[in-house]
Amino acid sequence: MEFQDKVLTCRECGKEFLFSAGEQAFYAEKGFQHQPSRCKDCRGARRPAGAGEGGAGGERTLYAAVCSACGKDTQVPFKPTPGKPVYCRDCYAKRGGRAGQRSPMVLDS
Questions:
Q1: How many CB atoms lie within 10 A of CB 45?
Q2: 61-89, pLDDT tens digit by residue?
Q3: CA torsion through residues 81, 87, 93, 96, sign
Q4: Boundaries of every domain in the chain
Q5: Separation of alpha carbons 84 and 87, rounded Å
Q6: Structural element, H or E, at residue 92
Q7: pTM (2 decimals)?
Q8: Can you tell me the distance from the alpha carbon of 48 to that of 41, in angstroms, rounded to the nearest whole number?
Q9: Which of 42, 51, 76, 79 has the fewest CB atoms within 10 Å of its CB?
């Protein structure tokens, strides 16, 4: 199917924006049923901060902890549960964690 550029009107701000042939082909490839109803700026304003940038958005709360293996002070992105071990980045990697990668369980101290 041959797509042609379309000019659409944003339902949020009323400005006209271009729905390019390439974007239409992408929408068709992904199986999207509807064309966009908001311009890029208004879509961005509705999206939570940080979304689409690899993160969940917002600031991460860190909790102080002491590594159960080496005793070093560290910080983790979850509230430690009493009686359950918490490891620093190095000890976590030694125990088979994702060495050399950012861990969802442990951050640098």
A1: 11
A2: 889 999 999 999 999 888 999 999 999 98
A3: negative
A4: 6-46, 60-109
A5: 10
A6: helix 89-94
A7: 0.44
A8: 13
A9: 79
